[in-house]
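re: the backbone from monday

yeah here it is again, tokenized this time
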């Protein structure tokens, strides 16, 4: 379905980003992956995908360079998936200012810089798909996640503005809002809960899901990837500015 399309997926060396990159590639898209990882993982990804960039998404100039490099190596960028993200948990009173700045830079500002860099060429072709990976925390809040919740709420707002500004074009912009997906980021939270409460990792997973996600099962990166592919299809042309929860009924409560 996506043969001939060119895609950039930020933060795609593992987790949700890698699931999306593989789903797009399976439909024929040429994908540039981006992110950090150990040498063995990166070597494997360089063999799997036609292009890789180690761009640091926290730095605006590197975000813009990523789009430029992808345009040169792939011949253009038709699909942009802003996925890169980090997390830190602490009460507001003790939340480190430097972590606030880093989370907003990576989880929010990078989306703006990437969209701004890619939109002109999408307008020239009158075709484009921009998918921002927000979170259920872009729709509802949880304690001790002030920077993450603030950034993800803002990503949903950014998505709506881009959708409005491209509403009469062949470009769409939407946000996917996953609940608990068992990624390395979430695994760290599971491990921390296990250590703090002196319970098994499996019990920590069950407890984590039970608090928020009524389905009591994790979403998979492959499922998020399948939704991203759908949003790139002609069937999704009039889905614009949506914040689509994939959260096991978390936000239905």
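seq for it, each position gets an aa:
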């Amino acid at each position: 379905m996506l043969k001939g399309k060119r895609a950039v997926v930020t933060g795609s060396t593992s987790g949700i980003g890698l699931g999306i990159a593989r789903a797009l590639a399976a439909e024929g898209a040429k994908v540039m992956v981006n992110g950090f990882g150990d040498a063995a993982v990166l070597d494997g990804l360089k063999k799997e995908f036609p292009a890789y960039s180690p761009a640091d998404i926290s730095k605006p100039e590197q975000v813009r360079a990523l789009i430029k490099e992808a345009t040169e190596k792939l011949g253009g960028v038709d699909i942009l998936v802003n996925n890169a993200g980090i997390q830190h948990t602490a009460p507001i009173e003790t939340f480190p200012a430097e972590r606030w700045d880093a989370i907003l830079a990576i989880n929010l500002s990078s989306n703006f810089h990437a969209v701004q860099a890619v939109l002109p060429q999408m307008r020239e072709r009158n075709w484009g798909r921009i998918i921002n990976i927000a979170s259920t925390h872009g729709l509802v809040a949880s304690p001790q996640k002030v920077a993450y919740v603030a950034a993800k709420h803002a990503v949903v707002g950014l998505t709506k503005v881009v959708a409005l500004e491209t509403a009469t074009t062949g470009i769409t912009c939407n946000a996917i809002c996953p609940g608990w997906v068992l990624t390395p980021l979430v695994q760290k939270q599971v491990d921390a809960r296990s250590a703090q409460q002196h319970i098994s990792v499996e019990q920590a997973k069950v407890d984590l899901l039970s608090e928020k996600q009524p389905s009591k099962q994790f979403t998979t990166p492959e499922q998020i990837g399948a939704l991203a592919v759908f949003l790139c299809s002609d069937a999704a042309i009039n889905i614009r500015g949506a914040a689509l929860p994939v959260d096991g009924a978390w936000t239905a409560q």
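Strands lie at 6-9, 30-34, 51-53, 79-82, 128-133, 171-178, 243-246. The chain has one domain: 6-181+219-252.
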